[in-house]
Amino acid sequence: MADKQAIRSEGEQFEEVLDALQRDHAVKEIAGWESGFDNLSRALDGIRPGLQLLVGPPGIGKTSFAKQLLDQVAMRNSATGVFISCAESKQELRIKTLARLSEMDSREIRRGSAYLLHWYGVPRLSGNEPGEISPSWERLKQAAEQAQRWLDSIYLVDASANTTVAAIAEQIDEIKNIKKGAQLMVVMDDSQRFGEMTESLDARLPIVVEQLQSLAMNLALPLLAIWPDLSGEAKTELHAWAERVASADVIMVMEKDTTRTKQPTEPNQPITLHIVKNRGGEKGKLAFNFYPAFAKFAEVES
Predict the structure, then answer these.
(1) pLDDT-derived band at 300, boundaries 50, 70, 90
(2) Nearest to 50 by CA among 174, 157, 185
(3) Could you tell me if 76 and 34 are in contact, meaning their C-beta atoms sit under 8 angstroms apart?
(4) Cβ distance 254 to 54 under 8 Å?
């Protein structure tokens, strides 16, 4: 059991606070971590401790966005990333990362090197027969090797329907011990599964959010929780999310941007990310292009 710290007044600690501020001479554009998305970093004032809720309909790319954001935070800030998934397998999450890094279609990666050899005009290999690996497969391997440094700071954690928030906290503590106190960012995919499954989504929302907010505060880390919007045609008004989820620090709502939609053959999907609540920064909306084949999001300048 940790030693109980003596209660100290603000006056007693103020000199220490000033000393800490004085040691930090660098002038920062944002207070938190770089997200890898410039407009998002400015709007949120960086990725900072607290609960961020990402809401959107199924299939819009929430998981791909969250995984890319986590990877970028780890890569740019020497932070440790933890991705907790209740639905997608570790293999599928790894394929998303490889597709984004190598700019290879995720379908090709799933089919493996034998498929790529055939696709690029090289006969398929049989058994362990040696042969020349296709340029694309070499590109994928090279992309993975270049990312090795920050991939060593990414942890994928499976969660079942019976996994509790307390169990997740124990796993996060274990990772913190492995990384010797490194700063962490956590993503929780399908966070609605941590609620009572017999309850409706609306009933689960405030309870789960309260639990996750407490977790983020107790561990002093950024926690991005993904929540599905299943309202369909009668979708929830954007401002209503801020009213329904009082304890979240940031609420972002993702939707398709019909004003920028082009021909159905276009490989990208125009996406708008609405920041409807933000205790430490701006509200507003950001434009992205989502490339599903590569599990990749790119900001669009407005």
Answers:
(1) very high
(2) 185
(3) yes
(4) yes
**Which residue in 117, 106, 10 sits closest to 61, CA to CA?**
106
Report yes or no on 115 lying in a domain: no
Nearest to 192 by CA among 94, 66, 95, 56: 56
The two tokens of residue 228 are 């599905």
Q: Three-state secondary structure along the chain?
A: CCCCCCCCCHHHHHHHHHHHHHHCCCCCCCCCECCCCHHHHHHHCCECCEEEEEEECCCCCHHHHHHHHHHHHHHHHCCEEEEEECCCCHHHHHHHHHHHHHCCCHHHHHHHHHHHHHHCCCCCCCCCCCCCCCHHHHHHHHHHHHCHHHHCCEEEEECCCCCCHHHHHHHHHHHHHHCCCCCEEEEECCHHHHCCCCCCHHHHHHHHHHHHHHHHHHHCCEEEEEEECCCHHHCCCHHHHHHHCCCCCEEEEEEECCCCCCCCCCCCEEEEEEEEEECCCCCEEEEEEEEHHHCEEEEECC
Contact 82, 155 (CB under 8 A): yes
Are 148 and 140 in contact by the 8 Å Cβ rule? The answer is: no
CATH number, domain containing residue 203: 3.40.50.300
Sign, CA torsion 233/67/220/157: positive
Range of the domain at 186: 33-103+153-300
Integer Cα distance of 201 and 296 in angstroms: 28
**Statement: residue 53 has pLDDT above 90:** yes
In a domain, 26, yes or no: no
User: What's the total number of domains in the chain?
Assistant: 1
Q: Is residue 248 part of a domain?
A: yes
Tell me whether residue 210 is in a domain. Answer: yes
Query: What's the pTM value of the predicted model, to 2 decimals?
Result: 0.84
* Residue 276 pLDDT level (bands cut at 50, 70, 90): very high
